Amino acid sequence: MNRKPNSPEERMTFWEKIYIPEIAKGMGLTLSQMFKPKFTRQYPEEKMQPSPSYRGRPVLVLEEEGERCVACGLCSRVCPALAIEVRAGETDKPKERYPKLFEINMLRCIFCGFCEEVCPEEAIVMSKDYEMIFTSKEDAILGIDKLLVPIAELEPRLEWLRQYK
User: Fold this and answer.
1) Measured in whole angstroms, how far is the alpha carbon of residue 105 from the centre of its chain?
2) How far is CA 21 from each of CA 7, 9, 10, 124, 149, rounded to the nearest angstrom?
3) Which of 2, 12, 126, 139 could form a disulfide with 16 if both were Cys (CB 3.0 to 4.6 A apart)?
């Protein structure tokens, strides 16, 4: 009676069962990688220059007239980590609303970029900042004063967003 093999173990050859060819392939790959040039960056001296597509610390865009944010609250609603808190204030200016309170808890932020995608004013963008040091939990909650960044510094990211959005 000719039976078909039921499991992968029954279909394996003798050499596959003892794994020697696979071990030899793995050792060959390791040896080939050992003689390739190394790509090590000496971090504190050599800084990384991220591309415009890099998602670093979220920041608010600061124009000459003031911040772009109109405190719609979409960023706080879409944030999966619940890291953003926005409270609106009213003004007599043409924009009518501004963020009275805008805080991002960087200990909760997962750098997903959803806040950037949902913002109708392009007011919150992911910057190139990747060096963040906090000595306490309170230092990790960034308010408007620490989040506002001039538009000139964020222009490469804004151009990238307009091109690929």
Assistant:
1) 15
2) 21, 16, 18, 54, 57
3) 12
Other C-beta atoms closer than 10 Å to the C-beta of 121 total: 13
User: Cβ-count burial of 106 within 10 angstroms (0-12 exposed, 13-18 middle, 19+ buried)?
Assistant: middle
What is residue 117's DSSP assignment? Answer: H
Q: Hey, which residues does 98 pair with through a beta bridge? A: 89
Report the C-alpha gap between 154 and 140 in whole angstroms: 22
**In sequence order, which residues have a C-beta less than 8 Å from that of residue 54 and are 6 or more positions away?**
126, 128, 130
Q: What's the whole-model pTM score?
A: 0.74
Closest CA to 58 of 152, 159, 163, 143: 143
Enter the DSSP assignment of 127: -
Write out pLDDT tens, residues 138-161: 999 999 999 999 999 999 999 999
